[in-house]
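Hi all, long-time lurker, first post. I run a small reading group and we've been trying to get comfortable going from sequence to structure in the token notation. Rather than ask abstract questions, I figured I'd post a concrete chain and ask someone more experienced to write out its structure so we can walk through it together at our next meeting. Sequence below, copied exactly:
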Amino acid sequence: MWMMLLCLWMQNARGKGLFIKERVDILYESGRQDSFHNQFWMSKNRIRTDPDGEDLTLIYDNDLHLFYMIDHKRQNYTITKISLDRRDARLNLLGLASFQDGVLQKRPNLVQATGKRKKIEKWVCEEYILNYPEQSGMETHIWATYHPAMTKNFHKKLWYAALGTSPPGDVRHILNEILRNIHGIPIQITTSVSMEDHQITTISTLTDIVEFDEFEDFMAVPTGYSLYRGNP
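-- Answer (accepted) --
Happy to help. Here is the structure in token form:
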């Protein structure tokens, strides 16, 4: 799911924000299926989500690398500094590249266009696959399309943000290689992971991308809420 979330942040030249809906399906080899929905509001430097069924708002500030958890029931909030350990940033990409002397090794042909096209939701998409080493037990298919409101510079900014305030050079290299070879934005990402005798498949699909008139108060802690200084 991390790859889908890394492809979501920008504000266009007209000063509009973006409202994005996502559906996530998790398929198990037994036939069981779990599904849930996410929705995000994205401005120039912040992303907001309100978890279903909870009186909470989560806001991430990409410039300050701060994470706000707002409790509307108690009318308070907490602030957390986001700083992912460099080793953890590399773990997200271990399947794509070998790990040697503490860094991920460069390798060619990380992404392959299959030439296949299909319609997903309202978009006609082209398929790409990530070329994992055969022994990795992983398989990822990316269906991407052009969208006028979203840019590759925006993608890169969010990919970096999700992997820490300053991802190491080897991580940046792999992410840049992926971005250079995918034309458009990912609308659907399907990842299958084989572990011992079973397989889990996660399908993340964007179902809507809509511009909205951003206003500052909506992307901030409400006036009158207090900072909670105890244990979360």
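A couple of things your group might point at:
The mean pLDDT is 79.
Residues 2-36+84-216 form one domain.
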